[in-house]
From TrEMBL:
Protein name: tRNA pseudouridine(55) synthase
Top class in the EC scheme: isomerase
UniProt domain Pus10-like C-terminal: residue ranges: 244-476
One MF annotation (Gene Ontology) recorded for this entry: RNA binding
UniProt KW tRNA processing keyword: yes
Family statement drawn from the similarity comment of this UniProt entry: Belongs to the pseudouridine synthase Pus10 family.
Chain segments annotated as coiled-coil in the UniProt record: none
EC number from the UniProt entry: 5.4.99.25
Alphabetical keyword list: Isomerase, tRNA processing
Stretch list, region Disordered: 180-215
GO biological process: tRNA pseudouridine synthesis
Ranges for domain Pus10 N-terminal eukaryotes: 71-189
InterPro entries recorded: PsdUridine_synth_cat_dom_sf, Pus10-like, Pus10-like_C, Pus10_N_euk
Length: 483
């Protein structure tokens, strides 16, 4: 930062800014061990003045007093002095750390966490200065910009140059955490609790400062007496906020589970939808991990056909965010996997509200199925009419025997919206039953009756024994992710 960069304040302008400060106040602050940048923020200065190099600043301040080794207010934060690290060029060090993490990004946002003791220091100083200089005209300009905001002014512009992109509120975050071993004076008061909960107030509000007791002698004296020798500890790390892929999946296998399914170290089925889709997305984004969430589920032996089932994949800490084109490439990669167990459609990046959309959609959806059914007698002509004439049929289902070990015993009412029989050439006891039902209906049980636990059932309607051999989901009607 020794060289004057475009955009930095010129020597003349800087001189004007510094010379314009009330000298009585500046001298008092310097003699109390307050650093140059803190002096700027105490007088409410903003912008580029914080990025000026310390050497050029020192010459502008009174010669009798030099900048303290460790600022009594910011405890080194604005001097780039830390207990674990000292540097004259913090932006460069941050930029180097960021580059090591190999994130791809087009903007960054800076997150700062500063210990509460810094705000205590500001409050003590303000109280001290008010007592001593409150009647001076220049004291009206004594308004604290928070250390956090001053730090942003000191770092953002140089970081934008070093990282060659703008600082905006995006998914890529650089987090700087400052901690100090000394606890806050107000750690036990409600004021302080509130502040730490909301993650430090960004601006030291005029209100909170002026509401301090007028003549708090302990505060006035404390400011002068308490010299802290320990700078803050500094850490820097970067991360990306989660982002989401949405789409629909099709499952062509009766031996693939929706999610990874392991019982006693043994995998059930040959693969899972979750791993095939999530794994490919994760690899393309170079993320740390992913979460897979689908709107409902089908049994491992049920195929998912038609327009497919909506799903979301949440990727944690992705190093790269794929372009629209590379999202298409991920879809193609998944769809070209040789075994063709699973396919995806309409894969796209969606906002984080995708979760809510899907939950809302789940509540209202209808599902269509095709079931391969066997009955204990040959099909009769009147069966077709009998079955298809039933509209919005109410069915009572007690929790199926096959899931009783993990679901509580309940009786639920479900609706079968419509049904249709499709014959299979050359077969009189096998047929395809197409049906549209309310979400959550147990289809297998609706066919065979589950020992009377589901009523009515295809068996009871047709007056014979009915068995289900295969089941496919053929459509899911939902509000979101329309095809
Ligand atoms: Zn300072």
């Amino acid at each position: 930062m020794g060289k004057e960069k475009k955009g930095d304040l010129g020597g003349k302008e800087l001189e004007e800014v510094v010379r314009g400060l009330p000298w009585e106040g500046v001298k008092e602050l310097l003699s109390n061990g307050v650093c140059h940048r803190c002096i700027f923020r105490l007088f409410g200065l903003q912008g580029r003045v914080y990025t000026c190099c310390p050497a050029s600043l020192s010459s502008l301040f009174p010669t009798a007093t030099t900048e303290p080794q460790l600022c009594t207010l910011c405890l080194g934060i604005l001097q780039f002095t830390h207990s674990n690290l000292q540097t004259s060029n913090l932006p460069l060090l941050i930029a180097q750390t960021v580059k090591q993490h190999s994130f791809h990004f087009h903007s960054f946002s800076l997150e700062l966490s500063i210990p509460p003791i810094i705000l205590d220091n500001d409050n003590s100083l303000r109280s001290y200065m008010k007592t001593k200089y409150g009647s001076q005209p220049w004291f009206q300009h004594f308004r604290c910009l928070s250390t956090k905001d001053a730090l942003k002014f000191s770092l953002i512009h140089p970081l934008e140059n070093l990282l060659e992109c703008k600082s905006t509120m995006g998914s890529f975050r650089i987090r700087l955490t400052y901690t100090h071993p000394k606890p806050s004076k107000e750690d036990h008061t409600s004021h302080s609790t509130k502040r730490t909960k909301t993650g430090e107030s960004s601006m030291v509000g005029e209100k909170s400062l002026s509401s301090l007791p007028e003549n708090d002698s302990s505060d006035c004296c404390n400011f002068l007496l308490e010299k802290e020798n320990e700078p803050c500890h500094f850490t820097c790390f970067c991360y990306r906020t989660p982002f989401y892929f949405g789409g629909r999946y099709l499952k062509y296998s009766r031996n693939v589970s929706q999610t990874r399914w392991i019982i006693d170290d043994e995998r059930m089925g040959e693969a899972s939808v979750e791993e095939i889709i999530g794994g490919n997305i994760l690899q393309a984004c170079q993320g740390d991990s992913f979460k897979f969430h689908a709107a409902g589920r089908e049994d491992i032996d049920v195929r998912m056909l038609g327009p497919g089932r909506p799903f979301l994949v949440e990727v944690q800490n992705a190093r790269r965010i794929p372009s629209e084109l590379s999202v298409k490439e991920i879809e193609t990669t998944i769809n070209n996997i040789e075994n063709k167990l699973v396919r995806v459609k309409n894969l796209k990046l969606v906002g984080s509200d995708g979760w809510n959309l899907m939950r809302e959609g789940e509540a209202e959806k209808q599902k269509q199925y095709a079931a391969l059914v066997w009955i204990s007698r040959p099909l009769k002509d009147e069966d077709f009419q009998c079955v298809s004439s039933l509209k919005d049929l109410k069915v009572l289902q007690r929790t199926p025997v096959r899931v009783l070990h993990r679901r509580s015993p309940l009786e639920r009412e479900k609706i079968i919206h419509w049904m249709k029989i499709e014959t299979i050439a050359g077969s009189s006891q096998y047929f395809l039953l197409h049906l549209c039902t309310q979400a959550g209906t147990y289809i297998k049980e609706f066919v065979h009756g589950d020992l009377g636990r589901t009523h009515p059932s295809i068996g009871s309607i047709m007056g014979c024994r009915a068995e289900i051999l295969q089941l496919d989901v053929t459509d899911i009607k939902m509000e979101c992710f329309q095809t």
